[in-house]
Amino acid sequence: MPILNADLHCHSVVSDGTMTPEALAQRAAANGVELWALTDHDEIGGQQRAAAAAHAHGMKYLTGTEISVTFADETVHIVGLGFDAEDPAMLQGLHATRGGRGERAREIAAGLAKVGIADAYDGALRYVGNPELISRTHFARFLVESGVCKDTSEVFRRFLTEGKPGFVPHRWASLRDAVQWITASGGLAVIAHPARYRFTANEEYALFTEFKTHGGRGVEVVTGSHSAAEAVKYAETAREFGLAASRGSDFHSPEESHTDLGKLPYLPGQLTPVWELLADRIR
Ligand code: AMP
Ligand code: MN
Ligand code: MN
Ligand code: MN
Asked: Percent of the chain beyond pLDDT 90?
């Protein structure tokens, strides 16, 4: 029986999700997920727990992470699947990628202080599960909880995106390095939620072309971040570039996420699912 309900993108308290790996596994299984991957941002500290919990709930598991990359002055996310979670180069690369987050968070708080929002650093820290992984999401939760905004989308719109007081430009990993860490450790690299980037057609073409040159093999077609029309568009892009297709909710929290684990359309036919290429990496 082919796998249909694979959910290969979500976040736990190890990065900017609100649930533990165990609680996520339980929720995914209850929603009918057959093959699952936990893909915390720039961090694989939750992989053993996630795999064990997946197996306890009868799901198959692929290792996962979502690496922050800077490409053409924009942040792009590369999902890695099926790599060896003990690979030294992967561990070192992710450690380096996480490195600037503490300093960046201080600068975000300083920017927010200038518009009258005091103590945002300590405020955000209260929501952080992993001190090395303080992210904009944690600031967003603090600003909602303290009544400054009604939801996290409003926080991003008003405070945390380019040109807004709490936005701090940051250099993440290079595309080449991220794809290299993933593939050299036995995994498959996937361009996450391609519709989310504000690229011109030329820049997007460059992203897909360079990604392939470095050894990238997949693209998210069906994700919580895509409309139905965007899924159709990126199914076409997958065919054009000869990439396999991935599917993932990008679930972060029951309160904040519009798409629940496993609750999204199946991949369109005619595309090769990334998990077919990773058959020998599934545990
Ligand atoms: P960071 O890695 O600190 O830049 O934070 C990026 C995270 O912020 C993403 O992974 C999302 O979880 C969240 N995020 C980014 N943009 C938005 C948005 N417009 N609304 C809600 N969450 C967002
Ligand atoms: Mn996130
Ligand atoms: Mn992402
Ligand atoms: Mn994500």
From this structure: 99
